[in-house]
Amino acid sequence: MPQASLEHDTSNQSHQIRRHTYPISLKEQAVALRDCMSIREIGDHLGVHYSNVHNWLRVANKLSDFKGNKKSSNIPGAGRPPILPEPDALVAFMDSRRHQECALTCSHMVNYLKKHQNEWLQTYIARQADGSCTAKRAITDLESTRAEFAARFHKDHGGLPDDCVYNVDETGIQYDMPPRYIWSKMGGTPKLSKGEKHSYRMTAVLTIRHDGEKLPIHYIIKDQFGGRINPKEFPTYPAGHFYAMQSKAWMDAEVW
Hints:
Layout: H1 24-32, H2 39-46, H3 50-58, H4 60-65, H5 87-99, H6 106-116, H7 118-127, H8 139-157, E1 166-175, E2 200-209, E3 218-222, E4 242-246
Protein name: DDE-1 domain-containing protein
Region (Disordered): 1-21
Organism: Aphanomyces astaci (Crayfish plague agent)
């Protein structure tokens, strides 16, 4: 007597049915039709299951009071409960920065948690350690790339004396830089004060000779071409280096 096979098709187990979401505007339409249609009739009219209509009618008051974006699928209070300790204090901090028309970024909020909820933050980071990102390339691959470049460079320029080979690196320095992304309260203004909108740039040209001698740093500053630095205005610029004033803080033929 042949034995029944214990194997079964598992090809569909990994297939997940996508959960349908509906905008609040559609939910409000369903609520508006409740006085003239039954729940099933509303579902047939809007092309949704009647159980969804039943759930929307349960929160009809919240839907009618909603003042946000009608394309959203959730009203306030939906989703997971907050995990942050004392979330109202964080919201007050966020509102305070926006009332002053200051930028509000993720860094500001993380720094707030470091200062006021550091113990919770360290516990949260420890829980997420297993899911941390990994490097895109292995260290051995990077070392092999460096070795290949060194061998090729030595082959082409190995005959030059050490005091004639320079390695130059141009490093851009952004300071007073406005953030790329700014958080603002839903329905609030994203307006920023003028001082928070613009950034300043300086370029530092770092040079080292093949014999290990480091040359003075060459700073390129955005200002009037050929201008002079006022030591009273810039008291922190270190002495012993070179500075160039240009209309743009980039390397160009004049600097070279």
